[in-house]
Amino acid sequence: MTLYRPEQDRPDAAKQWKAPAPLKSDVVIVGGGMAGLTLAAALGGVGLGVVVVDTQAEEVKTAAPYDGRTSAIAHGSMRVLKGIGLWQRLAGEAEPILDIRVSDGGSRLFLHYDHRDIGNDPLGYIVENTAIRRALHAHLAGLPSVRVLAPARVTALDRSRNFARATLEDGRTISAALAVAADGRSSPTRRAAGIAVTQWRYGQTSLVCTVAHETPHRGVAHERFLPAGPLAVLPMRGQRSSIVWSEHDDVAAAAFALDDRAFTAEIERRFGPWLGSMILVGGRWRYPLALAHAERYVADRLALLGDAAHAIHPIAGQGFNLGLRDVAVLAEVVVDAIRLGLDPGDAQALARYERWRSFDSMALVAATDALNRLFSAGFPPLRLARTLGLAMVDRLPPLKRFFMRDAMGVVGDLPRLARGEAL
Amino acid sequence: MPAALRPTVDDAEIAKFVALAHAWWDPNGAYRPLHKLNPVRLGFLRDALAAHFGRDARAARPLAGLRLVDIGCGGGILSEPLCRLGAEVIGIDAAAENIAAAEAHACELGLDVRYRATTAEELAAEGACFDAVISMEVIEHVADLGAFLAAACALVRPGGAMALATLNRTLKSLALGVVAAEYVLGWLPRGTHDWKRFVRPSELARHLRANGLAPKTLAGVGYNPISDSWAITPDLGVNYMVFATKSA
Questions:
Q1: Where are the domains of chain B?
Q2: Which of B19, B63, B199, B209 has the greatest CB tally within 10 Å of its CB?
Q3: Region A377-402: what's the mean pLDDT?
């Protein structure tokens, strides 16, 4: 792949400023979270020059206390990771989801998704975020065209018609044809670019932990919609499950303050007897729930990726899946542009990324928000409606299969990586 | 380097060419229609040239080492990508200010494209010769089509190729290419095109054969308003491209 040279060396200017020699690359990614690093792996895998800048050192981000969450990786996302060469590193750490049971508060009606309804593939996989981060760093270390600068902070991002230039706190500069903002839901890069965000808080907090339990989970993921918010119990490797328990902020704060035994007792009380008694493994984390959607996904020489573009309610386990779709689409439009001799930050390529992604993610943002509001409502007619709704979907196999395939990330206008093809 | 960029020339002149380069390269500016057409043109050129010269179109630099001339290069919108695909490109344009603008842009990006303010006729008179001659959206503007194509064809080496893009002379092209593009949608300045100068594929093929080239591929180019992009279509009624080769 051609390495793009955004500008010529200007020895005079360098002397004047006494700055270190500027780094040059095809793409500079601001933010080395899971989405940003996966994009670096995708682009670096086909030989593009990539520099990733992250504020935290690798040792910090891959240590267990940094992130106690797991990611539900849909089948289509698994294909994306496979196409990039990452799944090979993760398969041994992933627990297949064979069955999803959705249940509603006091009602006994279930929405039951069995993977055998649509074929032999698991519905998805549960992987610990820490395992994903370690696999990403290990993979990137083997890609010669990718550099990760961390800890380092971008203090300015100048964008002109022909290139973007990131200036770091230590005075280094990186010029590239394309800058990617992958710096999370509060993305300082997005803010500096003047891209507005629609966001709201739910007044809810998610409590996250891992538990070991008496009874095997048999690959079943549970989502229980309780009046205050959903409780997800997701199967992990070993006889463990990942708990994502969403509560009103005040209740969550009180629960978080309980000792370990009382905390797991609260989870058992809400979840029911299916897994027997539970023991906390490792730490506990809490994350306030908020939804954010950027009004634009691109600007001159800039693309927003992952949570910087759209941070959704974790109710459907789709956050990282959306990020991976962004990665697959952005990598595809950039590679297509380069194969035509256009530059990686070509305005038409970015417009294509925005058109392709914004509909998909807006639909999911709206759907997960609606789902949360519907299931969090205590109003009896709503309860009846949602109970009947769940039962109806369960009795209409074609409709259910469609919902399942969508949740698996295998419908719609898919990028090559999500179809299992090479980039 | 053309006269306009030599250090002796005053800053105001240079500023003018930089401004013109910015106009050429503004994806949403006056040349937006050309930027929109570029991907489909480049895909056609890459695939046809790779097939003819026995290259892998999916390689990193499929056109490596091929000497190309881009006649009517304007600000270099087509020349620069062809250079990135590995070709040695010379862009020529009769308008010296376009050449200065194209040079300013290639210089800013560090791309090794050569530009010259000259015409196909002058280049042919010098005896220049290329692996492939490319001229996109030019022939519908030339005063003497026969003389232009004779010169352009003379620039193709034996065994080489030529690629042209233009507009067909049909009622559909009058409606879409002139009335809609210039008067309804305002994509192009009014008076950009004189429909009477549009060239039918049969007329073009006759000229090419008379100059020793054999037309190999004809492809229509159609606009999809939903995706706001252009794609290859079998319909030659409005925009079309032709790829022709000279026997060795």
A1: 3-246
A2: B63
A3: 49
